[in-house]
Amino acid sequence: MAEPTAAEPQSKAYFQKERRKYTPEEETKLERQHFWRIIDAFRFYRFHVQEQVKRAERQFHSLSQRHKRLLPGVISNLDRVRRCAEHNQEVLDAIVHNGLHMFENVEYGEREDPRKARTSSTFDMDKLKSTIKQFVRDWSEAGQPERDSCYKPIIQEIQRLFPSDQYDVSKVSVLVPGAGLGRLAWEIARLGYACQGNEWSFFMLFSSNFVLNRCEEENALTLYPWIHQFSNNKKSSDQTRPIRFPDVNPQSLPLNTDFSMVAGDFMEVYSESECWDCVATCFFIDTANNVLEYVDTIWNILKPGGVWINLGPLLYHFENIANELSIELSYEDIRTAMIKYGFLIEVEKESMQTTYTENECSMLRYVYDCVFFVARKPSELQFNGQEDEHQHNSPPAAKSSRREGSNRLT
Ligand SMILES: C[S@@+](CC[C@H](N)C(=O)[O-])C[C@H]1O[C@@H](n2cnc3c(N)ncnc32)[C@H](O)[C@@H]1O
């Protein structure tokens, strides 16, 4: 067995090799390639689903005549799936159309060879299908129960901690990292708080840009989010049932609302200390390679007396991904570390049952048994992280000027 002391430098070298720093030119090129790869994925969707449908048709036609006669509805259902995919593609095309020039200060130029037909990976197709399901969670009436279980507890805590009869809520700054399609951040802004969502994935960014900036009429658009699910359907029609979005007009925020979405890696965009009164994370902290780096950032950017509200599971996104650092801590470990940082845990619930982009008609449904907490950065920091008895009810310090992310969305 290798000496433990020898193993450590070896594994460090392993991850350093894989996670090398790029020059700014290389970064720009990679970013541009990534941008176009995601655009290609949006455009490839139709072909991907058609392939799935063709495969299902081939399987069906391989059955005996006797078996086929017993199943009169299968081919017509597959036809419906195909038509629903065509419709989804129209929405995806509209999202891409609006995404091409959505960044104020970054242009991704033209694709190197626009004529080349591009296929997309299963990985990207899975991401795209998850993004389609995220419309249900964030912007459909069907997603209301899920939003009630995930977003409501966070919003209620914000309102309890910063009540509008005691605070000028327009000066209470709330950051939502990993904002997805932006509904939580939008709801917080709707209540008058100065709220910024931050998101890293182009899949999410293109889609949130579309829904937040281009959709006005309630329930005017349709998606078929469940057509990709060929298993666990009780009725064939469950697979092709539509959802309408947006359930509210995203542009109905009052004119003076301070609401924005900023693109980029949370840890890179937010490096300015003591800017935020509240950081609200929902299903986010397990997206880190090392969750303690998120805790570092949150600790740094919170104003003294500011609060971190978190709800979510610990389904570590990098677990089992080759060549990626993935530190999979238990909640107990994270909690211990947070207390060592100096966080004061004011509210804690270890069993909040929620779902995530749930298909309510499916025969397979997952429930997350989430942790929920409110942790305060003390207003007067002490070296040993012990509680300062006077800090609990301190008002947020005056809002400092907002760092403008380099990829701020229009
Ligand atoms: C599981 S989703 C949760 C989305 C949303 N908060 C919700 O509850 O529906 C996690 C989100 O975090 C985003 N994300 C992951 N790593 C990120 C990072 N380093 N910076 C910003 N966003 C990130 C992902 O793209 C994804 O949209």
UniProtKB/TrEMBL annotation:
Claim: Coiled coil is one of the keywords in the record: no
Protein name: Carnosine N-methyltransferase
Swiss-Prot/TrEMBL GO biological process terms: carnosine metabolic process; methylation
EC numbers on record: 2.1.1.22
UniProt biased composition (Basic and acidic residues): 15-25, 401-410
Localization (cell): Cytoplasm, Cytosol; Nucleus
Role this protein plays: N-methyltransferase that catalyzes the formation of anserine (beta-alanyl-N(Pi)-methyl-L-histidine) from carnosine. Anserine, a methylated derivative of carnosine (beta-alanyl-L-histidine), is an abundant constituent of vertebrate skeletal muscles. Also methylates other L-histidine-containing di- and tripeptides such as Gly-Gly-His, Gly-His and homocarnosine (GABA-His).
Main localisation: cytoplasm
Family: Belongs to the carnosine N-methyltransferase family.
Keywords: Cytoplasm, Methyltransferase, Nucleus, S-adenosyl-L-methionine, Transferase
InterPro entries reported in the protein's UniProt record: CARME, SAM-dependent_MTases_sf
Entry keyword annotation includes Nucleotide-binding: no
Any one GO MF annotation of this record: carnosine N-methyltransferase activity
Region named Disordered: 1-25, 384-410
Name of the top EC class for this enzyme: transferase
UniProt GO cellular component terms: cytosol; nucleus
Organism, scientific name: Crenichthys baileyi
